[in-house]
Amino acid sequence: MLTVAELIDRDGAVCVWCGREVWPADLTAEHLLPRTRGGHSTPENLAVACRRCNRARGARSVAAYVRTLAGDGVEPQLERLCAALSRLSASPRRAHAGYGARQLALLRALAAQPAERRSRTFT
Prior knowledge:
Strand content: 5-15%
Distance between the termini: 34 Å
Radius of gyration: 13 Å
Structural class: mainly alpha
Number of strands: 2
Number of domains: 1
Order of helices and strands: HEEHHHH
Shape: globular
Largest sheet: 2 strands, antiparallel
Helix content: 40-55%
Strand order of the largest sheet: 1-2
Low-confidence stretches: none
Number of helices: 5
CATH architecture: Orthogonal Bundle
Mean pLDDT: 91
């Protein structure tokens, strides 16, 4: 498993969800495919997230949490998320790759919509 410092070196010190730049101590390793859904702590399944977003997301899917953020008026970091999901979809683990590909397709569909419709997309 990568440390948070290694993730910051790889991805930058910005939350993959909300885009906030916080103190490094307030950043965590976020599992794109949550551990409760079969995700593992492999480099391709980890991204940098602020503690607030990591806690708020829980075990929801990427698409579901993006919908929540958009509904709360937060502009989701679609470019960062798509990059992370592209990395996940190339995983040698079948469950990771399948989840990454499905969520990536959903996010690309979301990105093609006007911002005001994003919060209603995956209802």
